[in-house]
Amino acid sequence: MRVIVTGGNSGVGKATAAALAADGHSVVIACRDVDKAQQAAAQMPGEVAVAALDLGDLASVRAFADSVESVDVLVNNAGVMAVPLTRTADGFESHIGINHLGHFALACLLADRITNRVISVASATYLFSRLHLEDLNWERRTYSRWAAYGESKLANLLFVAALAGRGVRAYATDPGATDTDITRSLDMAEHARIRRLMHSPAQGARASLQAVTTDLPSGTYLAPRFNQLGRPKVTRLRRKAVDPDAARRLWALSAELTGCDWPS
C-alpha cells in the first residue's frame, strides 16, 4: 500500500515509516524539515519518498495535497506538545492549528484520493481536557500549554469519530509514554529519571502499525494496555471523545476556519 506519514522524520513517525517500508509498503514522509526527512529515509529499507509539508501553514498543506496522486493510508502523526503560546501562519493557536486543523485540512483535501483509511495519533491527555469551541484559538482564555495540547488531542479523537460517522474507515491510536524529541524538549527535570520506563519509538509506533492493517470497526481506538505503557489494545473512549454533537460542531468550525471540507 501507499502510505503517507506526517512527521515521519523523527520519533514515533520515523519508527512507523521505517516499519511500514520494511514490510513492503510505499511510504511518503511528509514533514517540514525535508533535510532531516531525507536523512531518515536514507536509513530505511524499501521505497521511501520525502515531501515538504508544514501543517502550520494551509498554503503548504494545499501544495502538498496537490502533489499527491493517490494514497491508501494517511497517518496523521505529526504534532507539537506543550509549546508556549504561538500561532501558525494562518493565525491559529499552534496546538489546535498543527495537531488538528492542519491534519483536518490535509485529510479533506485528499479525501477523493484516500482509498483505504485515515489514522490519527491521539493521546490519553484528552481525558483531562474539554473542547472550547467558543474560543478554540485561545484568544480569550488564559493560556495553558498542557490544556492546549490536551484539547487538540480531544479534537483528533472527535475527528476520527466524525469520519467513522461519515462511513470513512478511520482509527485513533496512542503511542503512550514514549521517549522521543517531543518529550526531551520539555525541560522536564524528571525526564532522565523516568526515561528507562518509557516506550522506545518503535514500541510507541505499535498502535499506528496495528491500525494500518486491522479489520476492527472504524472508529476504534488503540492505546497501551496499561494506559501509558504496554502493548496496544482496543480501548474504550470517554463519551466526550465520541459525542456526535461535539464532533459535528467541531467539524463545521474546522471547515469554516480552514476552507476545506470532506466532499459529500
TrEMBL record:
GO terms for molecular function: oxidoreductase activity. Keywords: Oxidoreductase. It holds the Pfam family adh_short. This is Retinol dehydrogenase. The lineage of its organism: Bacteria, Bacillati, Actinomycetota, Actinomycetes, Mycobacteriales.
